[in-house]
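Final report, closing paragraph on structural work. Over the funding period we assembled a curated collection of sequence-structure pairs, and we close with a single example.
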Amino acid sequence: NTLPALQAAVAAGARWLEFDVQLSADRVPVLLHDTTLVRTAGRPDSVFELAAQQLTAISVGESARFGTRFADVVVPTLAEFVTWLMTQPQVQAFVEVKVESVQRFGAEAVHTAVMRVLEPVRDRCVLISYDDAFLFTARLAMPMRIGWVAAEWNDDYARRARALAPEFLFANHARLPPEGQPLWSGPWQWVVYEVTDPAQALALAARGIAFVESMAVGELLADARLRDRGGRA
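Its predicted structure, as stored:
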């Protein structure tokens, strides 16, 4: 969830990116997974209690893991990402709106804030979330591709997926049924995340999975079998 990380993924060969969005205290969309800065900056501040100007001055280089290597990396705004994406015409993005921000500010306010920024690149972005109610709101508000992240694998979630009918349906690979058992049928393309092994990625492709999401995109695309499939990692 930093610009150097996303730029590195593209340099490694990725043509799709996925990142998380929270709203700051002044309702500015920023790239951040957690609601606090404990993990990335080693400080207890909540994203909901700091203005965007304050957040974008905080180093999130995870010094506990990396020392001073990324000390100059700060929280980026969604607007900064959009400015960069406009220079990368081959890249598309899955933009995950975090549930915590929806709960804090409300679906309509979050959607308005995010879409105001995404408008110049809306055709190259997919709005995703764990919150299917938020995605229903987004779909009613304006035409845009959406993706739902299914947190469970059961009949209720299958029903909710079919009711929403997103263009993309996300699942953790560990939640999929065993090979030989069918995946949920619907109008969506499957995106399976937390995949780091090339053999696993190929096996998922054989099951009809269109995209794998990985924190090791460079390592996956180093395998010629995956690189020849178009680099959709």
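The radius of gyration is 18 Å. Residues 169 and 190 are 5 Å apart (CA to CA). We thank the funder for supporting this effort.
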